[in-house]
Fold:
Amino acid sequence: MSSYALFKKDLASELRTRYAINSLVMFIVVTISVILFSIGNEKISDFLSGGLFWVVIFFSAMSGLSRAFVSEEERGTTLTLQLIASPTTIFSGKLLFNLILVFAMNIIIALLYSALFDSFVLKNLSLFLYAFVLGNIGIAIASTLIASIIAKASSKGTLYPVLSFPILLPLMLTLIDLTKQAMDGTTFESGYIELAVLGCYDIVMIAASFLLFDFIWKD
Amino acid sequence: MIWKIILFLLIAFVSIAGITFPIVATPAHWYDFPLIPGLGENAKIIFFHVPTAWLTVIAFFMSTVYSIKYLRKKDLVDDIKAHTSAQLGMIFCILATVTGAVWAKFAWGSYWSWDPRQTSIFALLLIYGALFALRSAVEVEEKRAALSAVYSIIAFVTVPFFVFIMPRIMRGLHPGSADDTNAGTIVNFKMNGNMLLIFFLSLIGFTILYYWIWYVGYKSMLYKEKLNKQYH
Amino acid sequence: MSSFELHAENISKVFGRRLIFKDVDFSCKNNGIYGISGPNGSGKSTFLKIISGIISPTKGKVTHSFDGKVVESEHLHNFLGFVAPYVILYDEFSAVENIHFFSKIRGINFTQEKFDFLFQHFGLFDRKDDLVKGYSSGMKQRLKYIFALIHSPKILFFDEPTSNLDNSGKEKVYQTINEESQNNIVIIASNEDSDLAVCSTVLELKNYKIAPKSENK
Structure:
């Protein structure tokens, strides 16, 4: 309940300052157009377009998701939050906010991407959707935790992708593989193990995050 | 002192034996290595490449163990131990990557081909790199220790996913991987007695070497800290 | 009457290589006003942060208990009120929104009477719907008192309580301190003589130790 209140506070703050949303939207547009320019009139293979889809998502996530904690640290309100809520509440509130942000962002990217890339055709849509949902949850959890780490470090902007990439790599590789399978139109059963890996990743990450967040949050 | 002499003899023996003992089709003498189809003379790198890769993992594991210990006890000595281990792990990780790439050039025809194990060692390299980048970005000692401990635990948790997912996504070329038709599981079946002996001696030797460097490394860091404290 | 107790045993704090204080004991109980003075850089703020559980000491232990039961750190925040120059409220919200969000995040029952009373008391009622961005530093300081008092805490920590305040603001603060100290603990860190004058006990942080202030009356 109090994490939901924290989420509402963050949402109201975001709607008023538009700090993450504006840069996020621009980042999506820039990344997709860079890819479109570099492709030019070439026809790219299906597998490549499936992989590039997750490249766009990774970099967009890296541009916006660190705001959750970095904005508090920059404004100096970290202590204020510490005075009003327990670490568990704070992490779940911030996670909720990032979850919504990741889903909104990735749905926009997916729609834009399928409109702009002819080779991005998903033959097995349900397999992709399952992977998409589980993947988004994983991205949100891992990037929220890394955001809380880099908020305490000095070179916040450059450090975020550096720290996040190794943690997100197994997730990304699995997602790219599942997207390829969905584009090939394989059966749902053949992607079952990869989906289970995504599910395990989400569970392991969320357990580790709640265990470790106390140590990051308390000075 | 006696340990250092034993270690020196061990490493010297392994180095000489590993390089000079001949590989023949039908081993007759005690020093002959058997010919492993598809590997040939290249097989000798096993005495140096595998121990470095093994130590990369051991160092990472030790670093995580001391990170957990730090978070429980908040003793900065544990952080120094974890950090020293991570530094060694980085060195061995680079060595394993380079020796592996050189070997791959001769065995597979290119330095890098995103084999599952190459990808895994690359991921480890990234993790170590990220860890050092994080450490240099935090000023306060306690904060630095806590954040890098948390990060190495989180990174450690993702390793099983790599091990599990990688062979499913990529085709393995590396000897010992499931897709490898040439060599198969070489360590168990294709190596004869003396090759196995030297292989394990090499593993033991390198592990002692790691422990020794680690011990000297963290001790010297501790003394450095103490001296700094005295003069400030 | 509530019985909140704070015990700090043998606490030491080291920042990197710099020792702030060593083996300090401090305890207080039920009610009263405690003052902590000390030269700049002696670690007053650090001391307040440690005994309020915001940061952990390098060595030693701080325990808080309420009605004889130890308060776990994840529940502690609703027992504390904290006013300090380094407590910062959200600029993009109005004073009312700030307090509303904080009460909801705390999960406490929000009472309109208390809310109105505090805004009247600290003279911010007319400006309560303005964004904090437009507040002067004195008004921000007043708002911090509302932030610290709205959830009826059992123990209050005031670091430099009267900084940026005009005379009427100071008066309100001293009045609040006296009222609160009837039932709750108030701990003040300051070097202002007028702040320390309201305290019943004054301690001094000096040479890494804490001791009753010698020249005090």
Remarks:
- The two ends of chain C are 30 Å apart (CA to CA).
- The interface with chain B takes residues 15-17, 56, 58 of chain C (CB under 8 Å).
- The helical segments of chain C are 44-51, 73-76, 95-106, 112-121, 137-149, 167-183, 193-197.
- The mean pLDDT of chain C is 87.
